[in-house]
Structure formats: structure tokens, C-alpha cells
Batch of 3 targets.
Target 1
Amino acid sequence: MVTFILFVVIFGIVVISHEFGHFLLAKANGIHVVEFSVGMGPTLFSFGKGETKYSLKLLPIGGACMFEGEDGLNTKEGEESEGSFQKANVWSRISTVFAGPLFNFILAFIVAFLMVNLIIIREPYINQVVEDSAASEAGLLAGDKILSLNGERVYLFEEVSLYTALNTDKEIEIVVERDGKEFRTTLVPRYDEEQDRYMMGIVNSDMQRVSGLKAFRYAWYEVRYSVKNTYKSLGMLLTGKVKRTDVAGPVGIAVNVVGKVYEETKESWQDVLVNMLNIVMLLSVNLGILNLLPLPALDGGRLVFLILEVIRRKPIPPEKEGMVHFAGLIFFMILMVFIFFNDLNNIFLG
């Protein structure tokens, strides 16, 4: 029950922030919001205020902010009013569509700021070099601060771990700061049977607490790390480097992520809070990035049509655009069913 409540709260926060972004910019641009809903499926509770219906749905996943005239559909009785989505100027529509993912990133930053004030930060310092490791042979020393990996700037030690995990058997050029000067070297991570992963052979124990203005900078680093983690994971998924058992939907997240994290940390309310905040940040970044993908039915797909309208200086017929998004919606519904059964398989048979 606790896992279910945490899951509903976490998903609710992430979804509401996304839909609220659409809602707020729609109102600011004079676009009529027909319905603002949280959840999917049958309506449990609803009420009307002004021109908008507010609904709570049965399934605690997803949500919607429906505009009048969206996809060529007249969602009000009679003719479309001046508040129709299609009658707003193209830049108003672009800002309204983009606001959903944007608010996910804003939420992620706010949550990251709260989180870094509660946790211990690890900067990319090397406190110990393991003997006979790739790092020792590359000439790395205790006290070095890692600046970049293959030209990619790093700010947190977690970024070093992520990069090593994604570049298991590839040569990595490392730039470190040593005594105020830059030192360059290369190494190839080695597989450690005991740890069951590839490792450079470095240890980091340089932990510090941050607060105040400094927390803003580290909050940005945490969000940046989450963004990198998300798009690199997407790349691995598209190239077949991620196994089916590594993919999780709402059920898998509830049981394998939220549930397990809660069970492992429930003895300390602060650990539970920090880990739940971290899940909110990761899910919010994930939702923001996924919605920006240029696919039908997603915000990114809608932005493609709007950008084409800017280029062509005339809109794509809304009926045709609506058909494309409807096809995309059917695809994602089928995908959700597949992910649902994949989650059940991973939980009970995995």
C-alpha cells in the first residue's frame, strides 16, 4: 500500500507539472482548455470551473490537457470560438505545446535543488588508484580531478561511472587537473568479475555537503546528469544494447524502482525522501525528453507540424495532422500493452 501511494504521488507530481505547463501557456495565449485531466480511463471525479472541466481518472498514469479545435476536432458545441487552438497564432501554439516538456525540466531542477541540500555530493576527484588497474597503468594519481572523458566535460563522479558503463571496451581519453595543470592520458576499462562490471580502477570518497547558492550549481549538474543518462539510455535501446528485461513501464517502476527503494531505505525518512525526490527528478527528465521526440501524438510530433507551418507559412490541414497523431496514439497504446505485460513478466518470471 505504501508503494502504491508513493507511486501515485510521484507520477501525479510529474504528470501534473507537464499538463500544467500546457494549461498555463494555453491560458496565457487565450486558448480554450476544454478539459484538464490527471490519470487515464474512466472518470472518478470531475468538476467544472469557468470554461474548463477538471477530471481525475481511474488509472494513475498519464494525463491530458485538451484544447478546443485540437487536431481539427470541435470540442465545444457549435462553431469553434476565438479560443480555438487552431485560431491561435503559430507561435502561441508552439509555446503552448513546448511548455509541457519545459515544465518537466523546471520541476526536475526544483526537485534537484531540494535533493542536493539533503545529500552528500561527490565531485570527480580520484582519492585512490587501485594497483595494477587500467588507471594506474595510465598514470592517474590520487588527488587528480577528472575534467573530461573523450572531450565530454564531467562535474560529478556519477558521470564517470556512467561513462565507464557505456564505454566498456573502448579507449577513453581522460583529462585531469593535477597541481593546477592539465594532464592527459588514455585507458581502456577492465572487466572486474567480482563487481561484474567494467572499471577504471579509481576510488572516490571525496564527499561534501552543499547549500545556499552553491546548491543551484549542483542542482544543475544533477539535472544535466539525468538528461545525459536518459538520452544515452534511449540510444542504447534503439541500437539494441538494452535487453527487454531492462525496460520498465509504470508497473515495473512501481514495483522494481519505487517499491525496492522504499524497502531498502524505509528505516530513515530522510533516505526515503531523498530517493523519492531522485525518482521524481529522473521521471520528470524522462517525460520531458520522450515528449520532445518527433513522433506522432507526442509534443515533439506536434512541434514538427508547427515548425513546418512556420516554414510553409500556412498550416497543415488539421484533419490530416489529426489522422497522423491518431495513428501515433494507436501505436503508443499497443506499446503500453506490450510494456505492461513485459513488466508482469519481469516481476513474476524475470
Target 2
Amino acid sequence: MEMSRPLRIEYAGALMHVTSRGNERKPIYREDSDFQLFLDTLASVWFNWVVHSFCLMTNHYHLVVETPDANLSAGMRQLNGVYTVRFNRKYGRVGDLFQGR
């Protein structure tokens, strides 16, 4: 029997450290402008988050976010999804950019 992953605990006012890694540990930023593309995406994906800090590495990122509306999962799906579309369009690629949670 396959075990399902544990539910993400979400609540209003949570302060969370989240990270997301490139699929197969491959880079999610190929050039300097990709870092800005990600930050622009983060700014445009509005989920009423308060971003306290971030660290963008070549093949993953870290965020410390406060979620006044208990919407971390929805926000992460939107952030990673929109950035993947923009990255794929820029580089003429298809498919997943990020590995699963």
C-alpha cells in the first residue's frame, strides 16, 4: 500500500520556511535575468503573503513567508506554476521545472 504524503499544516498568521528545488536538481535559473524573472513572478502572484526573506540558489529557492490568509499551498502552486510557464516560454522548453513537494 502506498502512503500518501502528510497534509501541509496551514493557518492564518503562520510564519513558514518553504523551499522548492528544480526537477532532477537541475537549475531553475540559467542566467542573471532569470533571478529577476522569479522575483517579478513572486511580486505578481498576490496571495497577501508577507515575504520576510528569500534566498535564490542556482537549483532551488528558500522563502520565509507569513500567510495571513492560510493559503500557502495555493500560493506555492501559483508561484511555481507561473514561473515555470515563463521559464519554459523563454527557453523553448516544456514540462515540469520543479520537483514535487
Target 3
Amino acid sequence: MSDFLSELAWRDLLYQQTEGAAAHFSAGTVTAYCGFDPTAPSLHVGNLVPIMGLVHLQRAGHRPVALVGGGTGMIGDPSGKATERQLLDVDEIDANVAGIRDQLERFLDFSGARAARMVDNGEWLRSLRAVDFMRDVGKHFTINLMMQKDSVKSRLEGGISYTEFSYMLLQAYDFLELHRRHGVTAQIGGSDQWGNITAGTELIRRTVQQEAHGVTLPLVTTTSGAKFGKSEAGAVWLDATRTSPYKFYQFWVNAEDADAVRFLKMFTLLGREEIESLGEALAAAPHERAAQRRLATEVTALVHGRDAAALAERVSRVIFDKRVDVRELPLDVFQTLGSEIPGARFPAATPLAVLDALEQAFGLSRSAARKLLQQGAVSVNGEKLAADTTHIDRAGAAYERWFLLRKGAREIAVLELTD
């Protein structure tokens, strides 16, 4: 098996491959592509599986092509969908393509002998003549064959439009065009793309009598059976304006113990020995969550950069570690906390009452706030407040502006003094 496929296999990223794929990747440099559907202006963490496939492809010495579907996005892939997609207008698709293009450029090297390439299939699909497409592509596929594909078969009872029924042929045509224009001989994608991928290999074989291959990656679920890529707030996006680096970090650091090592394999570039060592540390001391913290740091760094990952880690440590010395925290930690966790703002010129702070920061009633204080369950900047404390000493504000107000062991809010 080639280094590329071997790497995918030990990282639990290899699902299927066409016959002869291993020999094809072992024979020399292969140009392979993966497609990304512009249904939104940002990719999400579920897209990291095929993205990592392209990353490992390039690291193994092959040439990756990232195909953005400016053409196929006008149709919509029925794979994995129970109902028809809502059609997007051209301007919306173009805006989504631009956003996705920027994100993909963070992961791949676009320089050197094996430089990655970004391609938009709108270049050939938007000007494609229907009659030419039916003659040159449609004649190579029988309705019987298309009806057997999972993406079609699963929709027969509820109904599928001709628009989405034809998607398979458009993706097959993409493979052929990329083969002609850029020498692409392999496609990678999620396991739900197997029918579309093999349609492309068959079209290349029939039209230009050339060999082409496909490799699929698994669709990821969590050990608990939950859909991967969803948080309580919804989808976890790669765009920092949609999912902040801090929330992105939290998604990964909250991975279940049973998923942590598997996710380290799939979504980081750490080596086998280091991942195994983190797995051993997790088994020996699961409460320390060393594997999850490393997972969160590595994936956040990959998507948002090392600086953003370090800041997210520091902010997370403030929230979950009561022993953190607030006086040593950099200003950007407070600024991030102010936008990420519950809080309240108070004029700097007036006394700051403890009960007011608890009420506004946590939405407590007056009696509930007073009870917490009497129970010794309230602290400010790491110092527990006495039961008879009435006001917070403004002289203790970090940077003359910030307080961290904590109730109980885990709930924390940020108080900001304003001019």
C-alpha cells in the first residue's frame, strides 16, 4: 500500500478504494482532487475530514486539487439528503465560493513542485450546452446504473427531481474535465460520494480510455452516536466570525474520552508515538484531559493559527482552573472573556455592589444572590468573598477595568468597569 493510503489507514481515515488504487499511488506523483460544495459561506468541522485527506495527499508527495463547486452548487448534491436542497442564486454561490477558497488556502501549500491548485467548476459547467452534455456524457450512463446509486435509491420513495438526479453526471464530468485540464487521475471524498466518484472513473475509462481511481474517507460520528460537527449552538464553522476560536477550541476540548485519540489521529498532524502517549496519559488520568487539551490546541492552531489557539487555551484555563492568578493574565484574555462568557458592565465612578453584580451577570434573583454569598460560594479575581461583603473593591480590578466573578466551582462571569 502506498504511503498515502497507509497514512490514511492508521489514522482511521480510509474507508474505500477502487481496485488498483494502492498501486496507482505507489507508482509516482498523482494529481488528485476533492470537491467542496458552496452551500454556505464557510466550511464546518465536518469538512475537515476531506481537507485532512488533501493535506496527507500533499505530505505524501502528491499534488492536491481543491475543487469548489461554483457550477455544481447551482444544482445541489443529493447525497445524504432526505429532501431537495433549496436552490441558491448565482451571487450567493459566488460569495460562498470566495469564502471557501480563502479557508482552503490555510491548509495546503500552493508553492513548489507539488503546489496545490484551487479550481472552480463553474469555469466549465456554467457554459455547458445541455445537448452537448447529453450526447457526450449522458450516453455513457444507463438509468438502471444511476438508480442503484445510494444517493438516488434512498430518495426514490419520497421523490427526487431530475435536477438532483443529474448531479452524479455533473460530478463525473468534473472528474473528466480535471483529468483533461490538470492531469487529475484520482478523487477523494466522503464515503457518501462513492457512487459519484466511481461514475467519474467510469466516464474517464469510456471516453479517453485512461485509468482513474477513487478513495473515500469515513463519515464521522461520535462514540455516543451524536452527529459530529454539531454543538449546542449549532454547526461548528471554520470561519472565526461564525464560530470564534474560543468556541472552536471548546468544541474539541469537550470531546468524549472514547473519541479523543481517534480525533487526534483524524484531525491533527501529530505522529503515531505522540498520539499513543497521549492515549496512555488519558487512560491513566482521564480527569486531566491531556488528550483533549492537545487535540483542541492542535486543531484550533491548524484552522485559526497558533496565536489564536494559545489565546483560546489561556481563556479556557481561566474558566476551568480556579487557581489561575488573575493578576498574571494578559489583557487579550480579559477582552476575549468579555465577548465569550456571561458578564455585566458597571460605571467606574459608582460603588460596585456584590448583589448587583451577581444579579446582572448571572440573572439571579436578589434572594438567590444573597444566599450564594452567605454560603461562601462567591469569589472575585480568585478571592472568596466573606458572607458580609457588600461591595467589590475597585482597587483590585485587573488593568483597572476587569473582574472575574465566580459562583460555585464552574460558573464564571466577567465584570467590566466603564468610563
